Amino acid sequence: EIVLTQSPGTLSLSPGERATLSCRASQSVSSSSLAWYQQKPGQAPRLLMYAASSRATGIPDRFSGSGSGTDFTLTISRLEPEDFAVYYCQHYGSSPRTFGGGTKVEIK
Amino acid sequence: QVQLQESGPGLVKPSETLSLSCTVSGGSISSYHWSWIRQPPGKGLEWIGYIHNSGRTNYNPSLKSRLTISVDTSKNQVSVKLSSVTAADTAVYYCARLGYCSGGYCLPDSWGQGTLVTVSS
């Protein structure tokens, strides 16, 4: 089973700032099969990124993903008020499709 | 636009079986793969498993011995059954349509709003 470790646990930033979230895998993730989700309180998660660096339909271009192998990054170039949420990475190239523990992006 | 609605008992006794349904409206259930994900209160997401539109299933090994995911096309429902539950199974349970497909893999493009199931006597 691939274990995903996200850091930091909480990121305190102001609107307009840049957010950099990390997701590290315990072993190499095949074919960069790594996704990112955003979850707001009381809501279901929403797919942001897939294949490490491809944006899902309708996701603004301030969101970008990068990485391969065991190290992946989600970057939000300029935080908008609606971006304050919890972000999860997930690998999906093998079973089980585990999630990372999440990074909370909160308003400073 | 597809809508997913989870339903089932909100309270289940320890050692009993948790049974939830996800009713799909506005779309064909047989054309897609379907997944269940859960989230203990205040904690992160846990992938439960999925059912392919061929009927093939893929379960989280940690739950496999207790888990059944099935589809009833006549009712447009996806179901999950988890037997011998304990307090550790208390969570919000989400169903999701795996409609975002790329590179041979499919990811969730639509989710239910989730339903809280508490395991307690």
Structure, explained:
The complex is a heterodimer of chains A (108) and B (121). Chain A is mainly β and 108 residues long. Chain A is 0% helix and 47% strand. Chain A is built from no helices and ten strands. Chain A has a six-stranded mixed beta sheet, with no helix packed on it. In chain A, a hairpin with a 6-residue loop joins strand 4 and strand 5. Chain B is mainly β and 121 residues long. In chain B, the strands form three sheets. In chain B, strands 2, 4, 5, 6, 9, 12 and 13 form a seven-stranded mixed beta sheet that branches. A four-stranded antiparallel beta sheet of chain B has the order 1-3-8-7, with no helix packed on it. Chain B has a two-stranded antiparallel ribbon with strand order 10-11. Chain B has no helices and 13 strands. In chain B, 0% of the residues lie in helices and 53% in strands. The interface between A and B is medium-sized, with 28 and 22 residues.
> How do the SSEs of chain B run, as a string of H and E?
EEEEEEEEEEEEE
How many separate helices of chain B? 0
Largest interface, by Cβ-Cβ below 8 angstroms: which chains and how many residues each? A-B, 28 and 22 residues
In total, the number of strands of chain B is 13
- How much is the radius of gyration of chain A in Å? 13 Å
Amino-to-carboxy terminus distance of chain A: 35 Å
Question: pLDDT average of chain A, as an integer?
Answer: 96
- Beta-strand portion of chain B reads over 45%
Shape of chain A: globular
Q: Report the mean per-residue pLDDT of chain B as an integer.
A: 96
Please estimate the helix content of chain A.
under 10%
What spatial order of strands do you see in the largest sheet of chain A?
2-10-9-4-5-6
Query: Which geometry of chain B do the CA atoms define?
Result: globular
The helix fraction of chain B, in percent, is under 10%
**Low-confidence blocks of residues of chain B:** none
β-strand number of chain A: 10
Question: In this structure, how is the largest beta sheet of chain A organized?
Answer: 6 strands, mixed
The count of helical stretches of chain A stands at 0
